[in-house]
Write a structure and sequence with these properties.
The protein is 35% helix and 16% strand. By secondary structure, it is an alpha/beta fold. It is globular, with a radius of gyration of 22 Å. It has 14 helices and twelve strands. Helix 11 links the parallel strand 11 and strand 12. A ten-stranded mixed β-sheet has the order 1-2-3-4-7-8-9-10-11-12, covered by helices on one side. It has a two-stranded antiparallel sheet with strand order 5-6. The relative contact order is 0.14. The protein has two domains: 55 residues, DNA polymerase, domain 1; 342 residues, Aldolase class I (TIM Barrel, Alpha-Beta Barrel). The protein binds iron/sulfur cluster. The site of iron/sulfur cluster (SF4) has 12 residues, from helix 4.
């Protein structure tokens, strides 16, 4: 039976024909120059094309009117100016949240969320209760933050997440990541605003598609391309320790966020199945080393689930884990998603949890959910398109969650293996879509 807390699932649109041309926005540094040379074109055209992609934000090669017609036709033959075939935008929170379901050329569906934060004002929708940004610092100016996806679906399989229920599709191409940003920038330009922050917290585990995520961040922070300072970018991970270590070696300018959700291994084994490979102490040790080497505070995201991870015991475990670290915790009440037996913690419980963390010396901010009134939790729009799973599969999933939770509540580690999708994704094998 369909969970009444979620909207009816819409039929999946017909599958488009895959387009083998690479996306123009994802070309690495020097890629345009190489292509122009191979076409016998002068190198100075690269600047004009880049301006067309990033300043003009053109949707089609034919819109690049500074180029000769033959070059426009050549570009169109070789590249896709836009890797997103169609958008479906759902507006929520009185216009403060715009959730986009993007249809890619092979039929994969990914989501991005554009969140508007009016200038200043404590208690504004979507802001922390203390008027602070996701890094814990005070925010006073108007902001427009885009949450983007790095993969179609996700292999990690967190049971509180609609994307996790969808399973893994495939890694996104660099251009498919960047074109989510270009689409949002186009909508913002129409209201004479611009993007101020980009967070990799949408569908997928960014550190399992790290090369492309790094290419995307490079394009976003390149003054010749999108021109957003890397300090306005956040990349999250559910705890891919080798990926965190690689980031520490690179020493990027962006903020690292850890999707923690539990400080105790038995519970985190259930909430974030990747914990069965890299336990919580290893994840936090890697994040601590990252903060020490880069000098930048690490954000910890903590979804609050009533009666599951929101007890005083959990708050104390979290305080103990992060004590003395350059860290900040963002508490996010769970979005209601189908096929879980769980509910969000009450506002009062979230406030008490935050207070207990602060007493323990840990900076904490309560975040408000976005897009709930549109049934637009992460992955939910794509899940609606995927269709309602068969009833036995839903029943099996619920039973599994309950059984695993009981093991966790006893304080025992999980004996379950990693989800099959996750094993495949970590081994670099292809997904199912
Ligand atoms: S919460 Fe993040 S890591 Fe977990 S399944 Fe959802 S998208 Fe993947």
């Amino acid at each position: 039976m369909t969970d009444p807390s979620t909207p009816a699932r819409a039929p999946r649109p017909p599958k488009p024909i895959p387009d083998p041309r690479p996306g123009l926005s994802g070309l690495p540094d020097g890629g345009l120059e190489s292509w122009l040379a191979s076409e016998g074109q002068p190198a100075y055209r690269a600047r004009q094309i880049r301006d067309g992609v990033w300043r003009q934000n053109a949707a089609a090669a034919e819109d690049l009117l500074t180029l000769p017609a033959a070059l426009r036709a050549g570009l169109d033959r070789s590249f896709r100016m836009d890797t997103i075939a169609a958008d479906e935008v759902t507006v929520a929170d009185g216009g403060l949240t715009e959730k986009s379901l993007h249809l890619l050329s092979d039929g994969a569906l990914v989501e991005s969320v554009l969140m508007h934060y009016p200038a200043r004002g404590f208690g504004r929708a979507g802001a922390g209760e203390d008027g602070r940004g996701s890094d814990g610092r005070p925010e006073h100016r108007e902001r427009h933050t885009l949450c983007i996806s790095s993969q179609a679906g996700c292999a990690v399989g967190c049971p509180f997440c609609a994307t996790g229920e969808l399973g893994f599709g495939r890694d996104l191409e660099t251009a498919e990541i960047l074109d989510q940003v270009r689409h949002a920038a186009r909508r913002l330009a129409a209201r004479k605003a611009h993007l101020t922050n980009v967070v990799f917290m949408g569908m997928g585990e960014p550190l399992l598609n790290l090369d492309r995520v790094l290419e995307a961040v490079a394009a976003l922070s390149d003054p010749q391309r999108f021109g957003l300072g890397a300090r306005h970018v956040v990349v999250s991970t559910s705890g891919v320790v080798p990926g965190i270590r690689r980031l520490t070696e690179i020493n990027p300018q962006f903020t690292l966020a850890i999707s923690l959700h539990a400080a105790r291994d038995p519970l985190r084994d259930v909430l974030v199945p990747l914990n069965r490979r890299w336990p919580v102490a290893e994840v936090v040790a890697a994040a601590r080393a990252h903060a020490r080497v880069t000098g930048r505070r690490v954000s910890y995201e903590y979804v609050m689930i009533s009666g599951v991870n929101d007890t005083d015991l959990d708050a104390d475990a979290l305080s103990g884990l992060l004590h003395g670290d350059l860290a900040h915790v963002n508490l996010i009440p769970m979005n209601p998603v189908a096929h879980t037996p769980w509910q969000a913690s009450s506002p009062q419980r979230v406030t008490q949890f935050a207070a207990r963390l602060r007493e323990g010396g840990i900076g904490a901010t309560v975040r408000r959910n976005r897009g709930q009134d549109a049934g637009a939790a992460c992955g939910q729009l794509a899940a609606n398109r995927a269709g309602e799973p068969p009833a036995p599969a839903v029943a099996h999933r619920r039973e599994l969650i309950v059984r695993q939770s009981e093991v966790a509540m006893r304080g025992d580690r999980s004996v379950e293996s990693l989800p099959a999708d996750l094993e495949a994704a970590m081994a670099g094998r292809k997904g199912k879509r």
